[in-house]
Amino acid sequence: MELAKDNMNYQGLVNQISETFLQGQKNAVISVNSHLLETYRAVGQYIVEFEQKGNEKAEYGKNLLNSLSKDLTNIHGKGFSISNLNRMRQFYLVYPICATLSHKLSWSHYVELLKIEDKLERSFYEKQALIENWSVSELKRQKKASLFLRLAVSKDKKEVLQLAKQGQIVEKPKDIIREPYVLEFLQIPEPYNLTETEIEQRIIGSLQHFLLELGKGFAFIGRQYRITLANRHHYVDLVFYHHILKCFVLIDLKRQEAGYEDIGQMNMYLGYFENEENTEGDNPPIGIVLAREKDELLIKYAMHNVSSQLFVSKYQFYLPNREELKALIEKQLSRDEE
């Protein structure tokens, strides 16, 4: 009976114990991961320092990892394959200072990062994985979709270096725009003859992947969002809210090339949302016309004196050509040095 009378206090006790337990589990995982990273780095350090001792290096040569793998496996069982030992060795070489490691990333994250040869690119993915709290699978996907190269291709040398050092920091509308958006996760086979409605339906069916492609800060509001003007209904394909920029983000899908009429229509949507949907504290909405193709000159003139919150970007159903993007960035960096 006393327990029933004091039920509220008892529930508070349950909640307190539950929260403490969950936080303890979380801290334990972080602690284990931290010790694991330090251990693997130390193993790599021992291997590198042993190799650097002249005589030993000459004596063991390329057979060192083979010998270590065999002997350590006999002692400890799994975990000491040649590839794992090589990763630990590489881990120390890339991160010689332990303080530079982020214990928010797992060993599996670092294994994926170590596969990236370019230092700038590796640094970007490390920072972005932390900023957006990527899982290992999300990190793999963004690497495969060449996110760094897509973001860097339109920047100058200073901006590329800043991107690599800090990741993509969202401070203004332009920071959330990508060119192109890669929708390979929709698994649309050639010849890509789906209608805009069908593309939209597939995006909704793969919303988690689409949000990852959009980037950090997006919350889904709805599809075919109806607005009524002069007794006529209009429908915005996809509506999101960006909690960092504190504004609505409207996306209009185009099956083929973006036209000047699409820009006019999106501009109308932006005006409506700013005046009818925004509440106190909301910033002006952002509009993205997402099309398969766009004519840069036509877009330039169609955008004349149009809201700076409106953007036209391309999307594609296949992964971008990494080598072509890399060549464009290298050309840009070389041009900046001239």
UniProtKB/TrEMBL annotation:
Domain YhcG N-terminal: 17-150
Annotated source species: Desulfonema limicola
Entry-linked Gene3D superfamilies: 3.40.1350.10
Domain YhcG PDDEXK nuclease: residue ranges: 175-326
Entry GO MF terms: nucleic acid binding
Protein name per Swiss-Prot or TrEMBL: DUF1016
